[in-house]
Design a protein that fits this description.
This is tRNA (N6-threonylcarbamoyladenosine(37)-N6)-methyltransferase TrmO. Pfam families: TrmO_C, TrmO_N. By secondary structure, the protein is mainly β. The protein is about 10% helix and about 30% strand. The protein is built from 3 helices and 12 strands; from the N terminus they run ββββββββαβααβββ. The strands form 3 sheets. A 6-stranded antiparallel beta barrel has the order 1-2-7-6-3-8.
């Protein structure tokens, strides 16, 4: 039997591309997003939702729809060297390309359109949303549950700015977003090329950095519109 799923809204996110997005929700607390509901959904649709601290967001991995899927994938947490069944992972390359994120609910604007602001997101700009549900801790929190090959939080990189004046010229919220995102090491798990310069499109800026060992060196942060370095 086939079903048709209609989107209920979309995400406005500082992440403009897949590279650099946190691999799981909550790893980058500074990653704030706005979920804008379609006009069909007015204030009644979110009545009572503001009383919850977190929401489950169901969405579509639209950035990889044309890449298909495979029964075996290489999780980054295993260094990209071991294969696991797709259903034992959070890989976006799934049969139906459906995603699930637990986001911190910050506030709701019950206007036209309805906007739901969240933080700790792992979503790229334009992500189609298919459902929203409240998070209920006494039912869904299982801190003692086994987590398979996912053993604890991932290690993070130390962050250093090549030019501290570049950091100081940026809004503090943007600095936090940049540093927290890069600290998660956005490189493919199999890639370790110290001389390589990486670029990330983030919140209207192009960020360039190197990674050597356990340290990320941020070289520049340039506004997309002018290419002018923020120094």
């Amino acid at each position: 039997m086939e079903y048709t799923i209609q989107t209920i809204g979309s995400v406005h996110s500082p992440y403009r591309q897949k590279f650099g997005v946190a691999r799981q929700p909550g790893l980058v607390p500074a990653a704030a997003v706005c979920i804008e509901l379609n006009p069909d959904f007015h204030a009644d649709s979110v009545r009572g939702l503001a009383d919850f601290d977190y929401i489950w967001l169901h969405f579509i991995f639209h950035g990889v729809l044309d890449e298909g899927w495979a029964p075996l994938v290489r999780p980054p947490r295993l260094g990209g060297k071991r294969k696991m069944g797709v259903f034992a992972t959070r890989s976006p390359h799934r049969p139906n390309h459906l995603g699930l994120s637990l986001l911190k609910l910050e506030r709701i604007e019950s206007g036209k359109p309805v906007r739901i602001w969240c933080s700790g997101a792992d979503l790229i700009d334009g992500t189609p949303v298919i459902d929203i549900k409240p998070y209920i801790p006494f039912i869904e929190a299982k801190p003692q549950a086994k987590a398979g090959f996912v053993n604890g939080a991932p290690q993070t990189l130390n962050i250093r700015w090549q030019n501290p004046a570049c950091r100081d010229a940026l809004p503090s919220e943007l600095v936090a977003l940049i540093e927290q995102s890069i600290a998660q090491d956005p490189r493919p798990a199999y890639q370790d090329i110290p001389e390589r310069r990486y670029g990330m499109a983030l919140s209207g800026y192009q960020i360039h950095f190197h990674i050597v060992g356990k340290e990320a060196l941020i070289v520049s942060a340039c506004a997309d519109e002018t290419g002018r370095q923020a120094v």
